[in-house]
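WARN retry 2 of 3 for item q-0093 after timeout on previous attempt; input resubmitted unchanged.
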Amino acid sequence: MASALARAFDSDLWWSFKRSPVTVASALVALVCILGALLAPWIAPHNPFDLATLNLGDAFKPPAWAEDGDPLFGLGTDDQGRDVLSAIMYGARISLLVGVCAVVFSTLVGVAVGLLAGYLGGTADSLLMRIADIQLTFPSILIALLVDGVVRAAVPREVHDQIALFVVIFAIGISAWPQFARTVRGSTLVERNKEYVLAARIIGISQVRIMLTHVLPNVIGPVLVIATLNLGFAILAEATLSFLGVGVPPTQPSLGTLIRIGNDFLFSGEWWITIFPGIALICMVLSVNLLGDWLRDALNPRLR
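OK item q-0093 returned
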């Protein structure tokens, strides 16, 4: 363990990381967002979803530093008397969960399709890539809306509310796999004709094993970069769907739901209900995107 850490801190990746103040700042912001979300049940001032603790008399309280503000509610309260800071921390848990699961799902599908298309070639390659090309002609958010709409029409409302989180993850994940598939396919086309793959074929190793143990480790670098960049997109897509009212149910509000709720009161003077969740969403997505940009440059040998 100690030797692995020593090698990590002595690597080119760590050297590139510590030389970039923007990357370090982005990593700190992302770390704060992640820890705040994961530790919300223990560090949040209130539990905004415990109905027994809510008091409508606390509704629409401004931030603590404003006139008529309450020190118990640092960022104010919403229309139901929920603490905005606590709601942001709990909402970020759902946004991060959806984003990470959607990226993992799209990565698994895209890598599998790209490996098959690039390694097998021929008809399989043409068919899989034409499917990817067709999907790329549609905006990702439109595909997510289409998937959600089909599920809503196919299952009863009570069932949809129970599986809404999984539907959103699937809808966002299935809209992003072509990017992974095309990248992995291109790298696989290069790797499949190299000597180590030809040697593995000669000694009788199965094609599945060659793809998983020989080709995949050599094409995974670009996948990590795309996954990091797509994490920000997935979080933003979930917020968009929730803002439109087709994301997670209101009983499990994410940052997008909080922004939508606050938007109803924005022009009546209660600006904090939507502004602070919006700032939290911007910080989370921007920090992840900046880390993805750094990782793309750091893993590019031409820029070293």
